Amino acid sequence: MQDYDPNAMSVAKAKLFIQQYLSPLTECETVDLKGSLGRALAEAVVSPAQVPNYDNSAMDGYAFNSLDLVAIGLTKLSLIGTAYAGKAFEQPVQQGQCVRIMTGAMMPSGTDSVMVQEKVSLENGSVCFSAPPNSKMNVRYAGEDLSIGQTVLPQGHLMQAADLGLLASLGIAKVKLYRKLKVAFFSTGDELAGIGQALKIGQVYDSNRYTLYGMLSRLGVDILDLGAIADDPVLLEKTLLAATQQADVVITSGGVSVGEADHMKQLLSKHGQVVFWKIAMKPGRPLAYGKIGHAHYFGLPGNPVAVMVTFYQFVREALLRLMGQAHPLALPTFHVVCTEAIKKQTGRTEFQRGILFTDQDGTWKVKPTGMQGSAILSSMSKANCFIVLDEQVGNLGAGATVAVQVLHGLI
Length: 411
Ligand code: AMP
Ligand code: MG
What we know:
This protein has 411 residues and is of the alpha/beta class.
């Protein structure tokens, strides 16, 4: 990273630079299964049991021994009872017999296959098989999902809804997680007013703390909102130091662009090792990253869209690594046709706001949200993706294929 130019830093290089300083938290805690959602496992989970625990029926139907029908060639079996889920069917099944069985019920001893109920007819206490059966059909075998001792989830895995169910299916009530990451943030700017106050001339409402709150909440970190701080070196210093003492990560917005950056820049060089870049991207050109004491510091631009773009491009993945995820997935990216022309300057990566939609044929396409200024926060609100246009890309006509990063998840 010796050769980087702080005045034209590429998005990829800045990401790589930051990445080398990110070692995950080491402290762990044991938490009830439900509380693990969205957090990273501090140790691998190994299966203490097999799933399913016993051979059971995948269908409502009739359990039989395939030898009776396949080898011996019987077509009629006598019905000796019913096997229900949650209860063992005690009586062994002899040659020529079958048992009515419900989905999930344990296979009675002496049976190995289940014929679905729609494919048989009943006749005086006997079951007639019309369709020729396949042996071992419609049975879920013990251990076919998970076997004992198998690694179910690796260390560093970020717990999802399916994982809660998976561990519950093994009877696991508690899991060992990395402790929650603490993230402090504050806005900077003389012009900022708090919501609920009347705006004075020249003031704007502080929106960055709200978008940051939203994005950080979705990541599941502990949040410390330190407010909006005027461009006053004494106040900024006090707040910055308080933040670095209490949190693992400190995020500020505003005050990192040239000219106005002086307070923050001086403070950061006094108290830590922070680099200031002009990233070759739009929005989000000014960006600072470094360490102040033990805390990681991200100085995001002030413009509301730039805050969100830089958060998603640099901060999100960094936080996931610090939270203990070894290989965080980048935002899902794929290529689609853009239905409108796009204006784009070469020499920088642009993250235009887009709307992914399906056309009449059900094909996914994208269109820009409209005005793309870095202060147009409504563009972020309308968007469900970023249209990512690489440095070498220039203006594009309607119908061009573009890369999109999806912003919305399953919920
Ligand atoms: P700065 O990076 O401090 O020069 O700010 C760039 C632009 O973003 C200016 O128009 C600021 O008024 C605006 N801005 C900075 N911080 C915020 C904030 N917290 N909420 C809304 N707008 C902001
Ligand atoms: Mg400012």
